[in-house]
Specification:
Length: 148
């Protein structure tokens, strides 16, 4: 499969969840070959070091705009799934960015996995030959056409 015909997924992990994401990616490295992978800064660097046979595009660190770069892919319908392993026990200074990323994923019907179990289901689903991503929510068009 050529790089240009591959579907795109994003990988993000809070600091304490980075080892969990790396373990999950290692377990699933064969299935992940079928995807172009983008990631936020440190997560992307770690994935590149741990999966050298995969091409990983690293954006900026999440708090420095990487979450927004991934959000832009979602809003341009260029992302097929988001794997964002969230640390539920540690307050995050950029929590509003995280919420915005999950909100835009919901609006554009982009599957989001926030833990390993959900990541397994999302990966299985998007690798199914019959899978096709749903169209963005109709409320987008209603919003664009609203009277102001």
């Amino acid at each position: 499969m050529s790089e240009s015909s591959k579907r795109t997924i994003a990988m993000v992990a809070h600091d304490r969840m980075k080892p969990v994401l790396l373990d999950w990616a290692e377990e699933n490295k064969e299935a992940l070959r079928d995807f172009k992978i983008v990631a936020t800064g440190t997560t992307g660097r770690l994935l590149s070091e741990n999966l050298p046979e995969h091409e990983i595009q690293a954006f900026k660190s999440g708090p420095l705009g990487g979450d927004l770069q991934i959000g832009a892919l979602i809003s341009n319908d260029e992302l097929d799934a988001l794997f964002f392993l969230v640390d539920p026990m540690t307050p995050q200074p950029h929590d509003v960015d995280v919420k915005a990323l999950i909100r835009i994923s919901t609006l554009y019907e982009t599957p989001v996995a926030c833990n390993r179990t959900t990541a397994d289901f999302v990966l299985k689903g998007i690798t199914d030959p019959g899978y096709s991503k749903r169209a963005a929510h109709p409320m987008i068009e209603e919003y664009v056409q609203r009277s102001v």
